[in-house]
Amino acid sequence: MIRFDEIIKPIKLKSDTGVYMILAGLLSAIAGIFVAPVPLGFLSVILSFLGMKSPKGAWGIPVFLFGTGVIISSLYR
């Protein structure tokens, strides 16, 4: 059980793990352009958001926006 007076440390990932998540999010967004844009776009957004917790997490921001763009583009198909 978690007590409110305890300090909960935020999740931190190793550099390689974060890069792999961001790369997987990018590949998911690229695949979402061609097949199933909504689920693959959501997968891209989630992976890039989790990849932002690593030391090289700034690279997750463009992937996050790209995944969001893939989801929004499904409205115009």
Please describe what this structure looks like.
The chain has helices at 15-34, 37-51, 60-73. It is built from 3 helices and no strands. It is elongated, with a radius of gyration of 15 Å. With 77 residues, the chain is an all-alpha fold.
Task: Identify the notable features of this structure and list them briefly.
77 residues
Beta-strand percent range:
under 5%
Give the mean pLDDT. Answer: 84
What are the low-pLDDT stretches, counting only 5+ consecutive residues below 50? none
Which class of secondary structure composition applies to the elements?
mainly alpha
Main beta-sheet strand count, sense and barrel state? none
Write down the secondary-structure element order: HHH
Rg calculated over all Cα atoms:
15 Å
The tally of beta strands, per DSSP, is: 0
Helix content class:
55-70%
Distance between the termini: 47 Å
| DSSP summary: helix tally | 3
Form type: elongated
In brief, what are we looking at here?
Helix content is 64%, strand content 0%. With 77 residues, the protein is mainly α. The relative contact order is 0.21.
